Amino acid sequence: MTDKLILKNMIFYGYHGVYAAEKELGQRIEVDVEMVLPLLSAGANDDLETSINYVEVYTLIKELVEEKDYNLIEALAHAIAETLLSAYSLEAITVRVRKPNPPVGGVMDYFAVEINRRPRSGRPLYTEDDPSGMG
Questions:
Q1: From 22's CA, which of 2, 33, 37, 104 has a CA 20 to 30 Å away?
Q2: Across-strand partners of 57?
Q3: For 33, what's the count of Cα atoms within 13 Å in the CB-facing half-sphere?
């Protein structure tokens, strides 16, 4: 059984991209995180000390998106994952970062990247060599 804490569709304004206009004008950035961790104690005891404070998570992500700049949303997603893995005892994390209305000269909903990470490894949760994700 897998327990998850999910923060979905957090919306920020950041200056991420390889094009000058993205760096100068900025754009809307959307982020989802799914953190895998045991939540039985938090649910049974109704105690925040046995869970994760959502406000703290939101604040960490907001700082990364709004106070730093990255060329690639892949790098932003990686920074979010590594920050949260360092801050909390997670079994795994999934991070999605979206750029709505990217500057491509065409119409689309968004560009996005999704990464899956485990603690201390920094490697994908699932790989071709290890599809089980068990290492």
A1: 33
A2: none
A3: 29
Distance of CA 2 to the CA centre of its chain: 18
The verdict on residue 127 lying in a domain is: no
Strand order of the β-sheet with 92-100 is 4-14, 27-36, 92-100, 110-117
62 in active site = no
At residue 21, the pLDDT reads: 86
Average pLDDT of each block of 10 consecutive residues along the chain (135 residues)?
A: 93 93 92 96 90 96 96 97 96 97 85 94 52 43
What pLDDT is recorded for position 135? Answer: 44
DSSP string, 34-78: EEE---HHHHHHT-GGGS--HHHHHHHHHHHHHH---S-HHHHHH
In a domain, 124, yes or no: no
- Sequence-ordered list of residues with C-beta below 8 angstroms from that of 105, at least 6 positions apart, any chain: none
Asked if residue 135 is part of any domain, the answer here is no
**CA 40 to centroid of chain Cα atoms:** 23
For the chain, how far is it from start to end, CA to CA, in angstroms?
19
Among the listed residues 123, 109, 102, 26, the one whose alpha carbon sits nearest the alpha carbon of residue 70: 26
